[in-house]
Amino acid sequence: MPWLLPAYAVSAALAIASALLLPDRWWPYALLKALTTVLVIVHGARRGAPGDAMRRALLAGLVLSLVGDVALLWPRQGFLPGLVAFLLAHLAYLVAFTRGVRLGAWPLAFAGYAVLAGVVLAVLWPGVPASLRAPVVAYVACLAAMAAQTASAWRVAGAGADAATRRRLAGAALGGALFLASDALLATNRFHAPLPLSTLWILASYWAAQWLIASALPPRR
Fold first, then answer.
1. Confidence class for position 119, pLDDT limits 50, 70, 90
2. In angstroms, rounded to a whole number, what is the distance separating the alpha carbons of residues 119 and 98?
């Protein structure tokens, strides 16, 4: 489906534009946001071997991300449900990227992401409500572990793999890093200080991350 990536990019761009240019009209952004994530689910579903454990886990993570996207359309009431949905998505991605690569196979990546997560939490902590502190800590830990494991998969599994597999795993590692960057921007904008054009940077990095993670699956022959 050669049209899928252009359609995904156009849908993402229109979603971002509608959020920035039509802030008083909720439905165009809501429809386009959901559509964009559905398109990346389609992309993932067309890759990998049916029944493959990594494929099942990645698709579960993408579907849970769609649940989170819909929940966060209501920033107040939907924040905690959205946080839980994305936490479960990161756990699904962790399962996916431990197929063939043990958890923590590259300790340096885990150490680096742990430090980065600690810095992010330290910056955000004063602005996080007491009722959300435990869920936020759990979420950041899962997110950092997911990003570190994608880097581990690239470093370990990619070392002896063919060039195409190395590229897919490198893309997934970049996707993990972009996911963390996107959520750090979102949390900074919510709990610390408003960011200029926050919607642009948050959603662009988020959807790039999701596409790269889904692309870790090999193309179906």
1. very high
2. 26
Instruction: Judge whether residue 202 has pLDDT over 90.
Output: yes
CB 105 within 8 A of CB 155: yes
Distance of CA 40 to the CA centre of its chain: 11
Rounded to two decimals, the pTM is 0.95
Res 114: pLDDT = 98
C-alpha count within 13 angstroms, C-beta hemisphere, residue 200? 6
- Predicted pLDDT at 186: 95
Q: How many of the other CB atoms lie within 10 Å of CB of 26?
A: 13
Of 170 and 26, the structure prediction assigns the larger pLDDT to 170
Asked whether residue 221 carries a pLDDT value surpassing 80, the answer given is no
Residue 47: C-alpha distances to residues 1, 44, 180, 214, 216 (Å): 11, 5, 24, 8, 9
